[in-house]
Amino acid sequence: MQIIKNELLNEYVYHEKLHNNMDVFFMPKRGFTKKYAVLATNYGSNDLEFISPHTNEKIKVNEGIAHFLEHKMFEQPDGSNAFDDFAKIGANANAFTNFNMTAYLFSSTENFEEGLRHLISYVQEPYFTEENVEKEKGIIAQEIKMYDDNPDWKLFFNTLKAMYKVHPNSIDIAGTVESIYKITPDELYSCYKTFYSPSNMALFVIGELEKDEIMNIVKSTVKDEFMFDGEIKRIEPLETDEVRQKEIIEKLDVSVPMFSIGYKDKAAVLGSKDLMKKSIVTELILDILFKKGSQLYDKLYREGLVFGGISCDYTEHIDYGYTIISGETRDIEAVKHEIFSAIESAKISGIDEADFERAKKKKIGSFIKSFDSIEFIANNYLSYYFKGMDILDYYEVLKSIEIEALNERLKEHFDNDMSVISIIMPKEDK
User: Fold this and answer.
1) For position 272, what pLDDT does the model report?
2) Do residues 193 and 54 touch, judged by C-beta distance below 8 A?
3) pLDDT in tens, 183-219
4) Quick check: helix, strand or coil at residue 349?
5) What is the CATH number of domain 2-234?
C-alpha cells in the first residue's frame, strides 16, 4: 500500500491497487461526522469510438450512451432502485456523467459501511433489457428537450460547437433525441464491459474511518468480472488548430442578451505536471483580468454594461482545453470590445507584478481552505487522477509559478484567431 503525503496540508492518502486492478484511495479525516465515497470510471460522453478489448473490433457507439448507461445502473435485477436502498439507510446518493468521467457517489453520517458495500455492488451489476432500455429513452428524451430550452446550457454548448470541428465535446453529454433512440441493450453491455472494467475504475473514500476496515469491505465486495489485460484503445478524433465558426446566435426566452466568449487551446498532449501548471496559470490570468476587483470588472460595472458580473473558467484535459468568459449585457458589442481590449493591453504591458502576487496568494489560501470540505476533496480527487494528476501536488505546482509563465500563456492562448462568441438574444424586445 502506498502512502501519498502533503506536509503543508498535513493530509495523506492511502492508495492500493487491488488484485482486479481497481485503484482504491482512502483519505482519513478526523473530526468530521460526514463520510463520503465516490466510485468512478474513466469514461465519459467523449468516448464514442474504441477498439473492443474482448473482440478487437472497432466500435462506434451512439452519442449520449455514457449518460444513458449511468441512468440504467440504478435499476437492479430484482426490480429495486439503488437510490431507494441508499435512502433506507439515511444516505444521500447521486451520480453524474461529464465529457471524460462517470461517477457514482454517496455521503452519510451513519451506516456508511453498508452504504459502501451497496455502492460497489450495484455499480458491478448491470441489468439491461429491451423493456427497461426503451422505457429510459422516453425519460432521457424529456431531459434533453428540457436542456434545449435552458439558456445557460445552450449558451455553453453553442460556444463549444463554434470552437470544435470534430471533437465530441461539442456534443451534448446526453446526446440527441435521435441518437438515444438508437441505443440497444447490446450496445450498453459492450460499453459497460469495456469501460467499467476494474482497471478503468477507481474508488475514493474520505472521512473519520479506519483504513483496514474500509479496505476489508472493498476487497470483500469487488468482483473480477470484465477484467482484461492492457489499456482501453480509444480512437481520438483529429481536431484541428482552427475554430469551426466565429459566432453562433440563438433566440430564446431571456429578458437580457447573454454572451459567452471562448478561447480554444491548440492541440497538445501534455504530461500531468505540465497540464496542472497550464491550468493554474490560465486561472490566475482570468482572476487578474476579469474577476471582481479587476480593472475591467470595475469599468463594466461602473458603466452598467454587465448584469451580475463576469463568469470565467478554464477547462483542461489531456487532449483539449478552453477558456469561457460569459455574462449578461444589453450591449454585447461594447462588452466584447472591452474584453478583447483588456486582453490585448495585458499582452503589451504584461501582467502587473502586484496583481500577480495578490492572485497567487488568494489562490493558495483558497486551495488550503478547500481541504476543510470533504465534498471538495471527494469530487475532485478522481477527476485529477484520471487526468494523470494528484490534487495533493497542486500547492507545490502553484507555488513554483512565476509571472513570466502568465505573460507567455497570455500571448499563446488568448489568440483572436482561436476565439469564438456564442450569443443568446431575447425572442422579442422587452
Assistant:
1) 61
2) yes
3) 999 999 999 999 999 989 999 999 999 999 999 999 9
4) helix
5) 3.30.830.10
- Which candidate, 18, 52, 71, places its Cα nearest to that of 194? 52
- What average pLDDT does this structure show over 363-367? 93
Q: What is the dihedral of CA 43, 44, 50, 53, to 10 degrees?
A: 20
pLDDT per residue over 283-336, tens digit each? Answer: 999 999 998 878 888 888 888 888 888 899 999 988 889 999 999 999 999 999
Q: Name the CA dihedral angle for 103, 107, 113, 118, rounded to a multiple of 10 degrees.
A: -40
φ, ψ of residue 167 in degrees (nearest 5)? -65, 135
pLDDT at position 430 is 45
Can you tell me the distance from the alpha carbon of 426 to that of 51, in angstroms, rounded to the nearest whole number? 45
How far is C-alpha 58 from the geometric centre of its chain's CA atoms? 26
Query: What pLDDT, on a 0 to 100 scale, did the predictor assign at position 224?
Result: 77
- What is the spatial distance between Cα 22 and Cα 200, in angstroms, rounded to a whole number? 7
What residue spans define the domains of the chain?
2-234, 247-426
Backbone angles phi, psi at 331, to 5 degrees: -135, 80
* Measured distance CA(256)–CA(276) in Å, rounded: 36
Contact at 8 Å (CB) between 185 and 77? no
**Out of 70, 239, 283, 316, which one is annotated catalytic?**
70
Name the DSSP letter for residue 166: S
Is 125 tagged catalytic?
Answer: no
Q: What does the DSSP assignment read for 44-78?
A: -TT--EEE-TTT--EEE--TTHHHHHHHHTTB-TT
How many Å apart are CA 154 and CA 160, to the nearest integer?
Answer: 10
What class has domain 247-426?
Answer: alpha beta
Q: Read off the pLDDT band of 48 (50, 70, 90).
A: very high
Query: 40 near 103, Cβ under 8 Å?
Result: yes
Mean pLDDT of 143-161: 93
Task: Please list, in sequence order, all residues whose beta carbon lies within 8 angstroms of the beta carbon of residue 284, skipping any fewer than 6 positions away.
Answer: 356, 359, 360, 363, 401, 406
Q: Which percentage of the chain shows pLDDT scores above 90?
A: 70
Report d(CA 97, CA 105) in Å as an integer: 12
What's the mean pLDDT in 140-158?
A: 92
- What is the CA angle 157-159-161, rounded to 5? 70
> 397: helix, coil or strand?
helix
